[in-house]
Amino acid sequence: MSTNLATKLREGTKKSHTMAENVGFVKCFLKGVVEKTSYRKLVGNLYFVYSAMEEEMERHRQHPIVSKFYFPELNRKASLESDLFYYYGANWREQVAPSPAAEAYINRIREVSATDPVLLAAHSYTRYLGDLSGGQILKGIAQRAMNLADGQGTAFYEFADIPDEKAFKNKYREAMNELPVDDATADRVVDEANAAFGMNMKMFMELEGNLIKAIGQMLFNSLTRRRARGSTELATAE
User: Fold this and answer.
1) DSSP string covering 65-105
2) By C-alpha distance, which of 198, 189, 199 is closest to 66?
3) How far apart are CA 21 and CA 168, in angstroms?
4) Within a domain: residue 220?
5) Residue 71 Cα distances to 58, 66, 88, angstroms
6) 37 located within any domain
7) Per the confidence metrics, is the pTM higher than 0.70?
8) Does residue 219 fall inside a structural domain?
9) Which three-class secondary structure state does DSSP give residue 151?
10) Which among 69, 84, 91 has a CA at the least distance from the CA of 6?
11) Mean pLDDT across the chain, nearest whole number?
12) Which residue of 19, 24, 192, 227 is surrounded by the most CB atoms within 10 Å?
């Protein structure tokens, strides 16, 4: 029995995907407006989310369905730890904590793991397939916007154990499509994926205030420098 779950997920989450891309923080990111303080807070939140998801996936590695879409080579926890070390230093564990939105996201992952592990497919699909699909583009944006050297602060986007990301995505979708779930279960997974998109959006929305303040400060600093230059030029002319 197969319900082409990956196909249903792609079709069933199109609206949520578009909505997520139109959150202010994401729109700014895609346009190259990335502020380091906000970004490192996002990295911290993702660390806690991926840690929870990967712990629960590992817990169910022998599950008859979860085992079929559990690919440890996708794990992001170690790469996020590397990035947190870069952004916060050696004592990063003392400085990061999940935000309220991240905490709610983590709690939901733990809940579905305990009550209906098949729904972990929704969280795996939502996060990992997005990482594989747009990771290199986002990496480039982050590097340019924050003046990062290659390999600094962007380990999250690197899948060292996946040499061919396109081929792996096809393998992943095939595994999802072949999951032995009925239509009702597939519909529940799609619903959970839409909920996961919503939880991601709430994490992004929390960061918008920090980003807006940072952009405002940047504009203020720019105007101040222009005024200072103007005053200097006027004084010189006199």
Assistant:
1) TGGGS--GGG--HHHHHHHHHHHH-TTGGGT----HHHHHH
2) 189
3) 24
4) no
5) 10, 10, 29
6) yes
7) yes
8) no
9) coil
10) 69
11) 89
12) 192
The CATH code of the domain that includes 118 is 1.20.910.10
Tokens of 10: 């792609």
Q: Which range among 19-23, 80-84, 161-165, 221-225 shows the weakest confidence by mean pLDDT?
A: 221-225
User: How far is the C-alpha of 104 from the C-alpha of 121, rounded, in Å?
Assistant: 18
d(CA 147, CA 126): 29
**Would you state the structure tokens that stand for residue 34, as one six-digit string?**
């990335």
Domain total of the chain: 1
DSSP one-letter code for 148: P
Q: Which domain holds residue 173?
A: 5-210
pLDDT digits (tens, 9 = 90+) for 106-126: 999 999 999 999 999 999 999
DSSP 15: H
* Within-domain flag for 225: no
Using only C-alpha atoms, what is the Rg of the chain? 21
Give the C-alpha distances (Å, rounded to integers) separating 15 from 12, 46, 122, 172.
8, 23, 15, 22
